[in-house]
Specification:
7-stranded mixed sheet; 4-stranded antiparallel sheet; 122 residues; mainly beta; globular
């Protein structure tokens, strides 16, 4: 059974950092791509970044460029999203999702995690 589980969210002050984790089970990251997405209440779901099975990275959100970095550790079967210099507008539920081999639009991702809340506030 394919599954991804997010962790690492929480409350952080503006300018702070968090590292989110996406733990995969039932499949290996050398065969699947993992994307990170976020959604705030009343807003559209936004694609942030994706790393494919060959470790190729696609970045999408201009608002987080230079602040967020995606990476993975195949041995741990885990994808990370390092978030630095966090801003209040980064507050959202952050989710990861898996798709076979290559990154694509959200509608093509097959397996979604439950999400983890990130709140940026002083």
């Amino acid at each position: 059974q394919l599954q991804v589980v997010e962790s690492g969210g929480g409350l952080v002050q503006p300018g702070g950092s968090l590292r989110l984790s996406c733990a995969a089970s039932g499949f290996t990251l050398d065969s699947y791509a993992i994307g990170w997405f976020r959604q705030a209440p009343g807003k559209e779901r936004e694609a942030i970044s994706c790393i494919n099975y060959m470790s190729g990275v696609s970045n999408y959100a201009d608002s987080v460029k230079g602040r967020f970095t995606i990476s993975k550790d195949n041995a741990k079967n885990t994808v990370y999203l390092q978030m630095n210099n966090l801003k209040p507008e980064d507050t959202a539920v952050y989710s990861c999702a898996a798709v076979w081999r290559y990154c694509s639009g959200p509608e093509e991702f097959d397996y979604w995690g439950q999400g983890t809340q990130v709140t940026v506030s002083s």
